[in-house]
Known about the structure:
Layout: H1 2-7, H2 9-39, H3 47-51, H4 54-77, H5 111-115, H6 117-123, H7 126-157, H8 164-167, H9 171-197
Amino acid sequence: MKTFLRNNGLSICFILLFIGALAGQVVLGFKEHNKELIEEGAQLINFPAYLTSGHFIESTFENWESEFLQMGLFVFLTIFLKQKGSSESKKIDETEEVDREPDPNRKDAPWPVKKGGFILQLYKHSLTIILLLLFVISLVLHFFGSLKDENEKLLLEGKPLETVSSYLGNSRFWFESFQNWQSEFLSVFAIIMLSIYFRQIGSSQSKPVDAPHMETGE
């Protein structure tokens, strides 16, 4: 168990933080949504009903969507875009280990490397593909959650409901998306630029403390 915790400490820490934050969101979101329903003169809903409500689906997946978009673009753009001095960039004028072609004869190489062909070509880009696929899935779920939440409000007001096609042009959905996207892009810009001049000893995301500012890479 000690070995398992040592080898997987980072992922365990973040999944526990995720579970804790999600639990907080669900409990407080449930209370907030029922408070809104009271203000609108509607009936309260129970906890299971909240988990399938537009309010919960929209608020959850609009955040997941922006995270996966940020990570997917960051992984992809760091293939060919560089930032001198940043620990988050490849070196400016050097070929790095990640640029070399995979060796099927390497000990313990993943099976797609040994398989070769189309499987290998797909595997060479699999991290970007899966992150952007998760972005698309989250975007779709965010859209339908936002649409459901909007129609739940329109139903209470006795107004005509939105259709899928009409809601695609609704400013609410795109506002929800862009307000999250901009914060994610800002956070990536911040770590790229701040890692040029600031350090954190012991972190894999920082350059060594005594590294020159314009030394690029970790």
